[in-house]
Amino acid sequence: MAELLLQMKNIHKKFPGVYALKNVDFDLKSGEVHALLGENGAGKSTLIKVLGGIYRAEEGKIVIQGKETLINSVADARETGISIIHQEIMLVPNMTIAENIFMGREPTTRLGGVNYRRMNTEAQALIDGFGMNIDASRKVATLSIAQQQMVEIVKAISAKAKIVVMDEPTSSLTDTEVEHLFALIKQLKAQNIGIIYISHKLEELFRICDRITVMRDGERVGTVSTEKTNRNELIKMMVGRTLDEYYIHTERPLGDRVLEAKHIRGKSVKDGSFFLRKGEILGFAGLIGSGRSELMKSMIGIEKRTGGEVYVGGKPVMLNGISDALKVGVALVPEDRKKEGLVLKNSVGFNLTLAVLGEFIRGIHVDRSKEEKIIDQYVDAMSIKASSSRQRVGNLSGGNQQKVLIGKWLASHPQILILDEPTRGVDVGAKAEIYAIINALSEQGVSIIMISSELPEIIGMCDRIYVMSGGRVTGELNRGAFSQETIMNYATGGK
């Protein structure tokens, strides 16, 4: 039977006027990956900060390997064998990998100076032991995010960590990098290291975790074995209802065709034809690299189109970018909100009005009253949770960032809204709000194109679905024919 590495018992933490943690229990076994799951504000981060010595609990106790332990500081946590790998990389960019790994624990020469040769040799041995083909003398600034994350893990192991906390470790990784991370986690398990894994990506939890503890409103809802639970049960534990209840699809009459694309071709698009009706929610499914995003970008001229025709309202149009698209009532909410959609260092209000500056700026005159009216309208319409419209977007949760991005383009009053992965990287509660917004827009007559890699989402929300594979539209499904099996058949090139 695996050793019990950690027990957190009856943990209470109160901030002015509110309990952040109420009577929370959590435990971790050696060689186990134990997920901590919950919506933003559920208490996950607070619990980890108590474990990591950043916060002190008012009540409760922490037991490490059978011994009650006081953790009053980050240094206490580190000395106890607890290492937290934060979502934001904590390495020093202009220092080498070896220097980062041994920071504060540098091996010394007889004269008391840093023994760089020994430090590099030991760091390289650690790196090689995890199958990482990286030179320990490289500067951290030259590494990818995934490589930096691996260095964080190696640093934790070098400090004799028995408990490693990983906070959203795959948020910035490619699929290949995720596989490398999972391989590394399996190595840590084999060394009897316990891992607390925080993620909102349920599919990852089923792949890598042994148990899952769900939190809601500062309380522990329950702990389940990964083998004995399912996606819907976890979501119900998180929010009190199943995800199916969020997909409120209403049968409604659809209008005439408002958009038609015929044989669109581009760099990654070989042949894309489809049409969209007024008030319709039209889904685009397919595997990564199938050409869904590229089809939309080629259609509106963000990427070069080498062939094909586009009709809006039955009339042929030549679109050469976002400006042309907006003139005919078409808006695209891009997939990567941080790189393509938002200016993270600027405010909520600044971002919400980026697409409609012409509505309140005339020459050098700025109509502040009109600007504030637009901002207030979309903060309210999108239920954006921020301290004020002046708060930096980069400081908001992923769900609220996404709502700002959608609001930015809704402010342009589009009749056709293209949403590329609209709920990627947001928690279940924010997903529900975005689904409600999409449904409300369609009922108002706005036509929606929804690109999504989550099949339950696209099946639950859409009136029709096109499937793409290899840059081509390979299938069209009406709602009565929806199934994950049929979609995957078309997505993998089947007929």
From TrEMBL:
InterPro entries: AAA+_ATPase, ABC_carbohydrate_import_ATPase, ABC_transporter-like_ATP-bd, ABC_transporter-like_CS, P-loop_NTPase. PANTHER family: CARBOHYDRATE TRANSPORT ATP-BINDING PROTEIN MG119-RELATED, D-ALLOSE IMPORT ATP-BINDING PROTEIN ALSA-RELATED. GO terms for cellular component: plasma membrane. It is a peripheral membrane protein. Residues 6-242, 254-495 form the ABC transporter domain. This is Sugar ABC transporter ATP-binding protein. Keywords: ATP-binding, Cell membrane, Membrane, Nucleotide-binding, Repeat, Sugar transport, Translocase, Transport. Pfam families: ABC_tran. GO terms for molecular function: ATP binding; ATP hydrolysis activity. It is found in: Cell membrane. The keyword Translocase applies. Gene3D superfamilies: P-loop containing nucleotide triphosphate hydrolases.
